[in-house]
Specification:
3 helices, EF-hand domain-containing protein, mainly alpha
């Protein structure tokens, strides 16, 4: 099951989100850990809701 390609807007929003995350958790998580989280998220994000909708970050941690 291939996921539909992300729109540019989604990609932009996600990049923005990652920057926010990296700023917030800088020194707490390494960028590798953050990338890993995003990959895991994307892998299980079968409905393509994107990391943004879930990013009341408490849900991830």
């Amino acid at each position: 099951t291939k996921k539909p390609a992300k729109t540019d807007r989604q990609k932009k929003a996600e990049a923005e989100m990652m920057r926010t995350l990296i700023t917030e958790y800088n020194g707490v998580l390494t960028s590798e850990e953050l990338k890993g989280m995003k990959e895991v998220f994307d892998t299980y994000d079968t409905q393509s809701t994107g990391i943004i909708k879930v990013s009341l970050l408490g849900k991830i941690f």
